[in-house]
Specification:
Elements: H1 16-20, H2 24-29, H3 31-36, E1 45-51, E2 54-60, E3 65-72, E4 81-88, E5 95-100, E6 108-117, E7 128-133, E8 141-146, H4 165-171, E9 176-179, E10 193-195, E11 201-203, H5 217-227, H6 231-237, E12 242-244, H7 272-286, E13 302-305, E14 310-314, H8 341-353, E15 358-362, E16 372-375, E17 381-383, H9 398-410, E18 416-420, E19 426-431, E20 444-448, E21 468-474, E22 491-497, E23 504-510, E24 515-521
Parallel strand pairs: 8-9, 9-12, 14-15, 15-18, 18-20
Antiparallel strand pairs: 1-2, 2-5, 3-4, 3-6, 6-7, 8-22, 10-11, 13-14, 16-17, 19-20, 19-21, 22-23, 23-24
Length: 536
């Protein structure tokens, strides 16, 4: 069978008429001369947003071309279906994605992707192969999650084995992967060599686009292309469907409406909205997510169902937030928005309507950890996430979250688990209303994983507003920060849901795939459904 993560060595398609017209010197060079004239697929393929009956297929050519996808339910591609995909043009950096539909449940799907150039000869690239499995109604559920990739200057170190945590994740054979945000670090230059802890030298692959902070569209695009140089990632992408969301580093550190780059000498572009526009375009070009409709074409928040056992609610804690501030407002306003009214209403309704046993909220930031963003002009602490460090009743952005948690409790919506990354260490938090300053909510768990390939930090302090109890954390020792992957403090999360018992087991694993923490959660009784307007 052909390689799942690399183009095959020899082209499967040869235009013999063109071959006969080549000069003898080219014929003597054999495949090298032919391949030089073909489109290339240097970034491999990605599978995204696996859902009942469908999955996205993403790839990129190196020139104007048309994407072609062939899929079958056997490795020999018997009775294969060929889909003529979209054009890959310069306006989208030659990326393309095709939605495969009407896929049967519980089947292995084998995929072959290639590009035909837009010359009259329609020269095909060498194909890249992939495979994934749709989820059957009698299947258990297994997936992984994590975030924070190529941050703090720790990029692809081939002598270390590259971003080898992706191989550890692939080995557990998950049905899908949640990319929890900070999928690239557009604000973090990557140098050829960095001195790590204990004087060790970390050697990076480098490209021109990652040598400075990203400001141009080409530089933002280059961040995604850089990560796809890693063989572990390309192999993983060709086998494991992904659910992408974003956070701040896809644009710039801690960006919000209060972000000010006027004193940051690294940036010549000082207009944050312009940087956001370019970063947004690059993200949507390279993420294998299913586009939303014309109502909001760049929308990231969405629900993906995996049958009666699981619904995943992907939220966007970045696009609709108010400015980072002291976060102590006593009444809700546009300044305290975090999810924003439209997204919050969507999430409440979707949670209320869900018939799935488990409801995973995939969040790009934790709820109860204090995450700072420097100080404001008056010297007050400014906050990047939800918590505000005062341990008191809900204020600022906490007001919106308090309203969501109250809604969940009063509508008796059971079995909600929050999964996140962002803080660059592994943790398990139990939110206990008995320990909370604002306690009108049902207890719940939040699990934190990451970084996947970035600096290790933490642990962060907790804010007592919602009573988070740190059941587990694994982070650098006190006084240590920004440890390289050499230190081994890189983490991903794995979730298993047993079809028979309905129990969910969450494991936090390290860079080698070894378990550092696990927790099994029994499923509570079925949620009571309330249709119509909520009056709480």
């Amino acid at each position: 069978m052909l390689s799942l993560n690399r183009p095959v060595k020899y082209p499967l398609f040869v235009n013999f008429t063109r071959l006969c017209c080549l000069p003898l010197s080219c014929l003597l060079l054999g495949n090298l001369a032919i391949a030089a004239d073909k489109p290339k697929m240097e970034q491999g393929i990605q599978i995204g947003d696996l859902a009942p009956g469908r999955a996205m297929v993403w790839s990129r050519a190196d020139r104007p071309a048309r994407m072609m996808v062939e899929y079958a339910f056997n490795p020999d591609f018997e009775n294969a279906v060929t889909v003529r995909g979209p054009y890959a043009t310069e306006s989208r950096d030659f990326t393309a994605r095709q939605d495969l539909v009407d896929l049967p449940a519980g089947k292995e799907v084998f995929v072959k992707v290639w590009f035909e150039d837009l010359s009259n000869d329609r020269e095909p690239s060498e194909p890249v192969m992939g495979r994934f499995r749709t989820i059957g109604k009698h299947d258990d559920i297994r997936f992984v999650w994590g975030g924070d990739v190529a941050g703090q200057g720790w990029g692809i170190n081939e002598s270390f084995g590259g971003m080898k945590i992706y191989e550890a994740m692939r080995q557990v054979q998950p049905q899908f992967f949640i990319e929890s945000g900070d999928s690239v670090y557009s604000d973090g230059p990557i140098k050829a060599e960095v001195i790590a802890e204990n004087g060790q030298v970390w050697t990076n692959l480098v490209t021109p686009e990652v040598g400075k902070v990203a400001e141009t569209l080409a530089e933002f695009r280059g961040r995604y292309k850089y990560n796809l140089l890693d063989e572990n990632i390309r192999r993983f992408n060709a086998e494991v469907p992904q659910i992408w969301q974003w956070d701040d580093h896809e644009v710039a550190n801690n960006w919000s409406d209060s972000k000010d780059l006027s004193n940051d000498a690294r940036y010549t572009v000082k207009d944050v909205p312009l940087l956001v526009a370019r970063a947004t375009q690059a993200f949507h070009e390279y993420a294998p997510l299913r586009p939303h409709n014309a109502e909001e074409s760049e929308r990231i928040y969405r629900k993906i169902s995996y049958g009666p056992l699981l619904d995943v609610f992907v939220v966007d804690m970045r696009s609709y937030r108010g400015p980072n501030s002291d976060n102590l407002q006593t009444q809700e306003s546009p300044d305290t928005a975090f999810l924003g009214e439209t997204q919050l209403a969507w999430l409440q309704q979707e949670l209320q309507d869900s018939d799935a046993t488990w409801k995973v909220i995939s969040a790009d930031m934790p709820i109860g950890l204090n995450i700072g963003d420097g100080s404001d002009a008056q010297g007050n602490a400014r906050w990047e996430a939800i918590a505000n460090g005062n341990d008191g009743p809900a204020a600022g952005r906490e007001l919106e979250i308090a309203r969501l948690l109250k809604f969940i409790k009063h509508n008796r919506i059971n079995n909600i688990v929050w999964l996140t990354a962002d803080v660059h260490y592994a943790a398990a938090h139990y939110y206990d209303p008995k320990q909370a300053a604002s306690n009108d909510f049902s207890p719940f768990w939040e699990f934190v994983s990451g970084p996947l390939n970035a600096g290790s930090f933490g642990p962060n302090s907790t804010d007592a507003t919602f009573g988070p109890q740190v059941v587990f954390s694994k982070a650098p020792e006190p006084g240590q920060a920004n440890l390289s992957p050499y230190a081994g403090l890189q983490f991903f999360g794995e979730v298993n849901i047993d079809r028979r018992t309905k129990a969910m087991t969450v494991e936090l694993k390290d860079i080698n795939g070894d378990v550092v923490f696990n927790k099994t959660l029994p499923a509570a009784g079925k949620s009571r459904k309330h249709h119509g307007k909520n009056h709480d």
